[in-house]
Amino acid sequence: MTPPQDTKTIAEQLCQFARTNFVAEGTAFDEHSPLAETGIDSFALFELLLYGERTFGVRVPPSHLTRSNLASVATIACCMAELAGSGRQSPLDCKPGSCERDPP
Amino acid sequence: MLVVGAGAAGVAAAVAAGRAGARVVLVERYGFLGGLASAAQVGTACGLYLRDPSSSTPRPVAGGFVGEYACRLQRAAGAEPLRLERGLWVLPFPIAVFGSVADALLRECGNITVALHTTVAGAQTEGARVVRVHALAWNQPLSLRPATVVDGSGEGTVAGLAGAAVENGAGDQGPALVFSLEQVESGLTECGLIEVRRELRRAVENGSLPPLCEGLALIPGTNCHGRMDLKLNLPPASPDRPLWQQLTCWEREARALVLRLHRFLVENTATCRRARLASIAPQIGLRSGSRIQGRARLEEEDVLKSRKSALGVARGCWPMERWGNAARPDMAFFDERDYYEIALDCLRPAGLDNLFAAGRCFSAGAAAMTSARVIGTALATGWAAGTAAAFQALGRPLDQALETIRRQMNQ
After folding, report:
1. Is the pLDDT of residue B370 over 90?
2. Whole-number pLDDT of residue A4
3. Looking at residue B119, which CATH number applies to its domain?
4. Region B126-137: what's the mean pLDDT?
5. Residue A24, exposed/middle/buried by CB under 10 A (0-12, 13-18, 19+)?
6. What CATH number corresponds to the domain at position A84?
7. How confident is the model at residue A65 (pLDDT cuts 50, 70, 90)?
8. DSSP chain A
9. Where among B227, B252, B280 does a domain terminate?
10. Which residues of B53-66 are buried (b: 16+ CB within 10 A; e: fewer)?
11. To 5 degrees, how large is the angle CA A38–CA A43–CA A47?
12. Distance from C-alpha of B354 to C-alpha of B92, rounded to nearest angstrom
């Protein structure tokens, strides 16, 4: 497990993982690309999330597994950084507390 | 004429023949219509619409009966086509509706006799013709003397019994067992399934559940009102084992595993903490079976290059989707907004003149059938086989049948 990292680092590593494993060659893809429109199905999304959890030592609770939090690599990275307590270092458009959660 | 099997292909064949003016007997081994769409609780119809990532409305792959069935199913189900990733469209439907639409279409013809609980057990030939088919109708022997036969059994059963060459494709793809959960936490979407998958991965890694459990997938469009249908994907059949033994093993082991899975999900996920196991499909959903060896054969390249044929009688538009040992299928796509055609000779076994195969048992390579096995294409090949068989039974040339089918496809 690595120590908490900033949102940009998390996003870069998630992007790299997605590009290597799921995104078709030649497809434009960055941290803001809507995942649903870049060939990332629910299996791939799960693998991406699990990779992030294991790499950055966070666990995204069920209440945070919402459509908006899983919309793009950037939103996942924001959520993970916030859970790891490092969201404020983010150079992405990621405001502290922006990670959505379902009402209890 | 005789149609064997009342799945999508058999129903389409019977209606085509009925509307062409033939007197039809449709035999079905279960007590309901719809074949695996009903028995295996398939839940979504694929192969009805062209793949199109740029459009927000689905475009039917063909006119004629495929479009008609899709419209009636949509109306009866009160469902809308659903767009999935890569521009694929499916039509979700409640299980009971598929059979009721089929029943209504068969009744409207007026010249179709349906025999449920009827299993074909033998076929006699004279020269290159099937002249007699033996069946067991519930507990009584039934002997039929059809002029022509459509084999929509999904396994090439009549063709095989009549001595035609049949290719065993049971090991080409793994089957799936569908089950339904109710009282799933409201608001569950694919996101809820991620929690489920994460817990399953942990359980598989720590050895508390077998690896097979990672092959759990949500059936698109079924997750609403606290209910969702899930399919447990199973490994392909072993070529060293008789299929009946393999099927028995799958049915028993997969059902026991579903009960275990349900308990696990209730105990380990927030999404399913109150979930009730509402049903398990009456039959495992086989994705591949035996196929005839035809006068022509649909090959992988025909699919991937969207090939058209002057003898084309059915259109396929679903990508090649192979379910092997992995938790997700291998997908191979052809061009967007395009389709391939299946030639009439793919439905005609070499060596039999009055039998046509439709649905998953027409002549195709293993890879090509991973695309052509879906409901939309089964309806199309069924319609073509039924029309051709009816024309032949009524003494009309097959060229006329070909012309009629092609005109209807373009409507």
Report:
1. yes
2. 54
3. 3.50.50.60
4. 98
5. exposed
6. 1.10.1200.10
7. confident
8. -PPP--HHHHHHHHHHHHHHHTSPTT----TTS-GGGTT--HHHHHHHHHHHHHHHT----GGG--TTTTSSHHHHHHHHHHHTT-GGG--SS--TT-S-----
9. B280
10. eeeeebebbbebbb
11. 90
12. 36
pTM score, whole prediction: 0.91
Assigned domain for A33 exists: yes
Query: Is the domain of B45 the same as that of B135?
Result: yes
Cβ <8 Å between B85 and A40:
yes
Cβ-Cβ contacts under 8 Å, A45 against chain B: 190, 194
Mutate to test the interface with A, among B86, B189, B194, B200 (most CBs of A within 10 A): B194
Q: Supply the range of the domain harboring residue B251.
A: 176-280
Contacts of B197 in chain A (CB under 8 A): 43, 46
ipTM: 0.77
Instruction: Kindly state whether residues B301 and B164 are assigned to the same domain.
Output: yes
- Give the strand pairing for B2-4 and B24-27: parallel
Specify the DSSP element, H or E, that contains B121: strand B118-126
Chain B residues within an 8 Å CB radius of A62: 192, 195, 269-271
Are B194 and A39 within 8 A, CB to CB?
no
| Together in a domain, B23 and B74 | yes
Residue B10 region by backbone torsions, left for phi larger than 0, else alpha for psi between -120 and 50, else beta: alpha
Contact B363, B349 (CB under 8 A): yes
Mark which residues 20-59 of A lie under 8 Å from B by CB.
Answer: 36-37, 39-43, 45-46, 49-50, 53
Say yes or no: B296 and B378 in one domain: yes
Tell me whether residues A62 and B269 touch, CB distance under 8 A.
yes
Q: Choose among A43, A62, A63: nearest Cβ to B328.
A: A43
State the DSSP code for B30: S
